[in-house]
């Protein structure tokens, strides 16, 4: 009887120690975010969200990427539409990414994309790849 009692206590201790270690490991990781959008004007609320999350997360704030895809991809070549967003993103440590597939489909030359933006081959695929790495994702 004593053996069963001691075994049960030992099992419970091991279980709770494992849960605590797992929770500790989870808390040590950074919070990474990715947002997929089709419209440049949506950058305003997305960047405001990044700013608030940066404040809330503190040292846990990791990477924040915004992927722009779709038929309005040409808007990223207009400095009057993009310069303010690029500056704000840079100040927040946010990366704005252009979908290469959309650039090709809607005939936007890569050299017209602002130099501070990253270009990926396929924005949707890139989004899924980031999700597989644990990024929290939102599509607008």
From TrEMBL:
Keywords of the record: Signal
InterPro entries the UniProt entry points to: DsrEFH-like (IPR027396)
Gene3D superfamilies found in the cross-reference section: DsrEFH-like
Secretion signal span: 1-23
Domain of life, source organism: Bacteria
Official protein name in the record: DsrE/DsrF-like family protein
């Amino acid at each position: 009887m004593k053996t069963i009692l001691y075994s049960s206590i030992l099992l419970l201790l091991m279980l709770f120690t494992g849960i605590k270690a797992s929770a500790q490991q989870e808390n040590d990781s950074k919070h990474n975010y990715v947002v997929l959008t089709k419209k440049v004007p949506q950058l305003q609320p997305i960047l405001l969200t990044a700013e608030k999350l940066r404040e809330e997360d503190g040292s846990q704030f990791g990477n924040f990427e915004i992927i722009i895809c779709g038929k309005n991809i040409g808007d990223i070549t207009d400095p009057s539409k993009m310069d303010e967003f690029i500056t704000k993103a840079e100040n927040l440590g946010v990366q704005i990414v252009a979908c290469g597939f959309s650039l090709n489909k809607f005939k936007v030359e890569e050299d017209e994309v602002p130099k501070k933006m990253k270009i990926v081959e396929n924005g949707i695929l890139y989004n899924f790849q980031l999700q597989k790495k644990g990024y929290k994702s939102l599509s607008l």
